[in-house]
């Protein structure tokens, strides 16, 4: 039982009108693994995140988390079960302070009731204090603590990306889904971020599924890699296997190489 | 949190304000005209602050607040006039029935977004009005006689409780959940917030206090008629919230105080009142498109002022 995979995606697919954005998608993540998900633009990577987190209900297949079906659950329940995510297009709570952004994600772990807050009972104060403390811990890890009272919208771009990850972690996930977390960052920021991801993975005993465009980066830190193209799984394997897979080279790496030379 | 430190000063100054005004009223310095303005102002603030929770905090554009006001007004009038129960019971029942109405409208319609929600709530308020218009038990179009029972003390206590509840709710994990829905519903959902639950919650609390305001309103005049609770009444309340700055409770209070004063002095000239009202709105929207106070609270200005003073002392 202990060796059961944390996440099992079995033949999942979704259709938008006539377009099969993802079909017959199979994926397995074991406890503690760091897995890469790559593929050209429009391959269906973000869509597969949306399927995993309940934003879309799959039109076929089944998703098991911890052995239990989660497809059909609304996103907030999927998150409460232990999967949380970041967004490719940053989605922070702009008018909330940096620390409040993190507190929102910790919301479901706090217990004080509406009544206790309205009446300002002791449980409200202890609950809020606990939230403050927890949120600060996450901000410190991401070196955002000195911005804690700043509105999220006023953070520079790279810090906004870090805040999104801090926020996702505050929801206490066992599986973290990162959608191009380094997009728009410079090489140094990217390197720091990847070290941070490796650190939180150990620290919080996380499994991580990472969408990333930078091939070297993915190859460098992921144990296994899945390649999507036109909504179907093209290949799966270790970075070594993926690097040498002719289909992948043709569909994806080839394109990248051309891009780089262009 | 610093918010808890603002708690006792707030209660202290509120009680002081109440005592001073009550003293002036009982000494006859504030005559009926002025005490009436104060009562009317309190009712309007309750309405504004309760709608602020729905629109400003949770971001749900509701156009049906007059519907909850009507439910509160009629229910309370039935309780005191037909059932001969005491006024405080009427206030409480008005709030409870308005909450139920809020749940009935809110649960199906809060899944709708933006314009659709606005239309649904607008429709709801009209239905409420038409229902009362057609019930002979409450006087139909002629309206219902109500004894004057609303005093400054009742108005103040209700206002005080409204603000306390809504401020405490807003400054808690529950209020933050509501704000996260306003800011980015998809992200809120993804962070484990049950967005429908919090939308309905904000709606229910807002409706409760609109119902309470309805009870005060009904017993402040001698008659209530369905026509008092039309679409324009909802717009009046909306104007307080928008003018104050969506998301700012103190902004809504300030706007309500100003507009209540303006409309009281222009009571006998309804056309002029509408013109001035419109002008004020246009000017504010031109020069302060985010409302008088944006999303800032008075306490934020106070903090800014203190840090500015601090900077000066440090020679910056
Ligand atoms: N809600 C939707 N309705 C219709 N089509 C959609 C929807 N969401 C995604 N698609 C389509 O599905 C396909 C896959 O999109 P997706 O965003 O998953 O790609 P991606 O692999 O994340 O690409 P990128 O690298 O550009 O982020 C695209 O053709 C996209 O236009
Ligand atoms: Mg994408």
From TrEMBL, chain A:
Any GO BP annotation: D-alanine transmembrane transport
Family annotation (SUPFAM superfamilies): P-loop containing nucleoside triphosphate hydrolases
Domain ABC transporter: 7-255
Listed transmembrane segments: none
Molecular functions per Gene Ontology: ATP binding; ATP hydrolysis activity; L-isoleucine transmembrane transporter activity; L-phenylalanine transmembrane transporter activity; L-valine transmembrane transporter activity
PROSITE patterns the record matches: ABC_TRANSPORTER_2 (PS50893)
Keywords: ATP-binding, Nucleotide-binding, Transport
Recorded GO CC terms: plasma membrane
Pfam families recorded: ABC_tran, BCA_ABC_TP_C
Protein name from the UniProt record: Branched-chain amino acid transport system ATP-binding protein
UniProtKB/TrEMBL annotation, chain B:
Localization per Swiss-Prot or TrEMBL: Cell membrane
GO cellular component terms given for this protein: plasma membrane
Main location: membrane
GO MF annotation: an example: branched-chain amino acid transmembrane transporter activity
CDD domains: TM_PBP1_LivM_like (cd06581)
Pfam families attached to this UniProt entry: BPD_transp_2
InterPro entries with a match to the protein in the record: ABC_transp_permease, LivM-like
Protein keywords: Cell membrane, Membrane, Transmembrane, Transmembrane helix
Highest rank taxon of the organism: Bacteria
Topological category with respect to the lipid bilayer: Multi-pass membrane protein
Transmembrane segments: 7-27, 33-55, 62-81, 87-107, 114-132, 152-170, 200-217, 237-262, 274-290
UniProt-recorded name of the protein: Branched-chain amino acid transport system permease protein
Species lineage: Bacteria, Bacillati, Bacillota, Bacilli, Bacillales
């Amino acid at each position: 039982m202990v060796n059961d995979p944390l996440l099992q995606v079995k033949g999942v697919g979704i259709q938008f009108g006539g377009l099969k954005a993802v079909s017959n998608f199979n994926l397995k993540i074991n406890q503690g693994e760091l897995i890469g998900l790559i593929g050209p633009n429009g391959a269906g990577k973000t869509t597969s995140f949306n399927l995993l987190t309940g934003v879309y209900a799959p039109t076929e297949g089944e998703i098991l988390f911890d052995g239990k079906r989660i497809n059909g659950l609304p996103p907030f329940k999927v998150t409460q079960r232990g999967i949380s995510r970041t967004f490719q297009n940053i989605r922070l709570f702009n008018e909330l302070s940096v620390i409040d952004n993190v507190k929102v994600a910790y919301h479901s772990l706090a217990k004080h009731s509406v009544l206790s807050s309205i009446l300002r009972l002791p449980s409200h104060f202890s609950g809020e204090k606990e939230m403050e403390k927890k949120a600060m811990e996450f901000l410190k890890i991401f070196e955002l603590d000195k911005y804690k009272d700043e509105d999220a919208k006023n953070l520079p771009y790279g810090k906004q990306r870090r805040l999104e990850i801090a926020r996702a972690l505050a929801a206490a996930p066992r599986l973290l889904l990162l959608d191009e977390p380094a997009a728009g960052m410079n090489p140094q920021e990217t390197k720091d971020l990847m070290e941070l991801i490796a650190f939180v993975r150990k620290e919080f005993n996380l499994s991580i599924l990472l969408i990333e465009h930078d091939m070297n980066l993915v190859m460098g830190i992921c144990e296994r890699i899945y390649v999507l193209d036109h909504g179907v799984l093209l290949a799966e394997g270790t970075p070594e296997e993926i690097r040498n897979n002719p289909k992948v080279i043709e569909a994806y790496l080839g394109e990248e190489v051309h891009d780089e030379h262009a | 949190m610093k918010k808890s430190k603002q708690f006792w000063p707030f209660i202290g100054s509120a009680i002081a304000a109440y005592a001073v005004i009550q003293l002036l009223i009982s000494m006859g310095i504030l005559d009926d005209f002025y005490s009436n303005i104060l009562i009317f102002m309190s009712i309007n603030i309750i309405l504004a602050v309760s709608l602020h929770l729905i629109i400003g905090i949770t971001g749900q554009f509701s156009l049906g607040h007059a519907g909850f006001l009507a439910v509160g007004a009629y229910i309370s009038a039935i309780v005191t006039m037909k059932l001969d129960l005491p006024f405080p019971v009427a206030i409480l029942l008005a709030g409870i029935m308005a909450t139920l109405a809020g749940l009935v409208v809110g649960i199906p319609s809060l899944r709708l977004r933006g314009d659709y929600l606005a239309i649904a709530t607008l429709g709801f308020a009209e239905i409420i009005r038409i229902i009362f218009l057609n019930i002979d038990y409450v006087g139909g179009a002629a309206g219902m006689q109500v004894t004057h029972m609303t005093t400054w003390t009742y108005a103040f206590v209700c206002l005080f409780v409204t603000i306390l509840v809504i401020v405490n709710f807003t400054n808690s994990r529950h209020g933050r959940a509501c704000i996260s829905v306003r800011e980015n519903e998809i992200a809120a959902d993804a962070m484990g917030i049950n967005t429908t639950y919090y939308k309905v919650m904000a709606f229910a609390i807002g409706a409760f206090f609109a119902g309470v305001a309805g009870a005060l309103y009904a017993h402040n005049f001698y008659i209530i008629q369905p026509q008092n609770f039309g679409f324009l009444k909802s717009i009046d309340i909306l104007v307080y919230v928008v003018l104050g700055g969506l998301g700012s409770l103190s902004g809504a209070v300030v706007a309500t105080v100003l507009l209540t004063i303006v409309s009281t002095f222009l009571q006998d000239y309804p056309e002029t009142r509408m013109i001035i009202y419109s002008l004020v709105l246009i000017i504010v929207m031109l020069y302060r498109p985010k409302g008088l106070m944006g999303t800032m609270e008075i306490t934020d200005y106070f903090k800014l002022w203190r840090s500015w003073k601090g900077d000066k002392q440090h020679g910056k």
